[in-house]
Amino acid sequence: LRQGLDKTRRNIVNQLKAIVGQGPLNQAAVLEIEALLLQADVGVEATDYVINALQERIKQEALPPEVAIAYLKEILRDMLDQPLKVHKATFAPEKDTLNIWLMTGVNGAGKTTTIGKIAHIAQKSGYKCLIAAADTFRAAAVEQVKIWGSRSGVDVIANPGQNTDPAAVVFDAITAAQSRNIELLLVDTAGRLQNKKNLMDELSKIRRIVDKKAPNAKIESLLVLDATLGQNGLRQAEVFAQAAQLSGVVLTKLDGTAKGGVALAVVRQLNLPIRFIGAGEGIEDLRPFSSYEFVEALLS
Ligand code: GDP
């Protein structure tokens, strides 16, 4: 993770150390921290939260450099953990139960890759997995998901031909999952943002099928978001938050950006927990998210 966040860390850490190293943290230093956070794409809202917390604290006492950094880390961790007050704290499929994870996100965000990685991890951890290729609009997406499936020995349910109804694929996949006692069904959904209404209709139709056909399943709806998009990604995220009943985010391509601060913006603005982060193209390059690990990798 430290390596994955290298670009963002280099963008922040040295400057931060220089700012707080000037002596007890004062108002001028806090303003410099503010500029630094905005530059790392932490976003206005999340930055305001951090800066307000810092300002409250320096009103009470002067903060020597090490204390200032430790306190900053604490604020960031608290912020990243806020959504866990409404969403469950630990994130793993329940054993001996059908868990259905609906994966959404625009084309190119890394959805297919993420599904492949999750299937791999889950299979390795002893879960019985299945993938539904419900991004039926792109023939290439179905092919790609099949390649990922075969890498980790996970079956893929897909309908032959293009433009088949995604909801029908999901229906078939749930039938198969129920008869095979599958524990984790990963559903790849379409990611065309051009037509917001179609996207919303398609995602809500899939959700209706899932709720109806698998009323006892544990359902998660995860948005796959490309970290390299920074604040633009956040705007996409807002569209998906309206279209799907999201319960979490997977942040991909953290290895390719100095703007990893967007993680904080996402959490603050959508009040959704980050569940996984992707930091590479390989099958092993996905990690469960931990606020502690993330903040340490960012600021140490
Ligand atoms: P989809 O259209 O959302 O299904 O996106 P894909 O899964 O096809 O991924 C698009 C591109 O991003 C591919 O070239 C992936 O290898 C790459 N990619 C996905 N996740 C990551 C990541 O965490 N880091 C990097 N560097 N590349 C990634």
From TrEMBL:
It is a peripheral membrane protein. GO terms for cellular component: cytoplasm; plasma membrane. Its EC number is 3.6.5.4. Its main location: membrane. Residues 273-286 form the SRP54-type proteins GTP-binding domain. It catalyses: GTP + H2O = GDP + phosphate + H(+). Keywords: Cell membrane, Cytoplasm, GTP-binding, Hydrolase, Membrane, Nucleotide-binding, Receptor. GO terms for biological process: SRP-dependent cotranslational protein targeting to membrane. It comes from the Bacteria. GTP binds at residues 105-112, 188-192, 252-255. It is an enzyme of class 3 (hydrolase). Part of the signal recognition particle protein translocation system, which is composed of SRP and FtsY. This is Signal recognition particle receptor FtsY. It comes from Chroogloeocystis siderophila 5.2 s.c.1.
